[in-house]
Automatic annotation (TrEMBL):
Residues 1-38 are annotated as: Disordered. It comes from Chaetomium thermophilum (strain DSM 1495 / CBS 144.50 / IMI 039719). Gene3D superfamilies: Translation machinery-associated protein 16-like. This is Translation machinery-associated protein 16. Belongs to the TMA16 family. The lineage of its organism: Eukaryota, Fungi, Dikarya, Ascomycota, Pezizomycotina.
Length: 179
């Protein structure tokens, strides 16, 4: 939470001997307070946008953390990794099919159905081109992923790769440019 407004308010209150009601609308101090408040609001908006943008990658890391724990905290073989990636890619299939069945024939798809379909297509395309994920075949990455507590900054410690459906594994950097 940005603290510019609080610091500015405290500074002005100190100068005015605790009485902020003596400020008039066009004074320098009032403008200073307003500017600090606008800055705090802008920083909060940016933080929310960043959090929303980072959320899919955090969910992905969480999914693979659970997969590693289910596998007994051991590095996984290529077949097991592909199986987990396919499970992740097809996670919305069941919900999509339920929505499709619930829709009456001849009716256009719902917005939720369209969003799910687009999400599924995006994941399929990413898997064909190279699925961005932690390297689960590397023992150090597996142990680090197990210790991960959900914070963004810790993910830089992991080794990341792009795994394609054909089996090609390419090293990748964190954070990704596009996801």
């Amino acid at each position: 939470m940005p603290k510019t407004f609080e610091k500015t308010r405290k500074e002005i209150a100190k100068k005015k001997k605790g009485n902020l009601s003596t400020l008039h609308e066009k004074s320098r101090d009032a403008r200073k307070l307003h500017k600090a408040q606008v800055r705090d609001e802008r920083l909060e908006k940016l933080a929310e946008a960043r959090k929303k943008r980072d959320q899919p990658l955090l969910r992905r890391a969480s999914f693979f953390q659970q997969a590693v724990r289910d596998a007994g905290l051991k590095p996984m073989e290529a077949e097991a990794i592909h199986a987990k990636v396919k499970e992740y890619v097809h996670q919305f299939d069941e919900e999509y099919n339920e929505l499709k069945k619930a829709r009456r024939p001849g009716r256009p798809p719902t917005t939720k159905e369209d969003l799910l379909r687009m999400k599924m297509e995006k994941l399929q395309k990413e898997y064909q081109d190279g699925f961005y994920m932690p390297d689960l075949s590397h023992a150090e990455t597996v142990s680090l992923l197990d210790k991960w507590g959900g914070d963004w900054s810790y993910l830089t410690n992991l080794t990341w790769v792009r795994l394609s459906a054909s089996g090609a594994v390419k090293p990748a950097k964190f954070p990704p440019q596009t996801l």
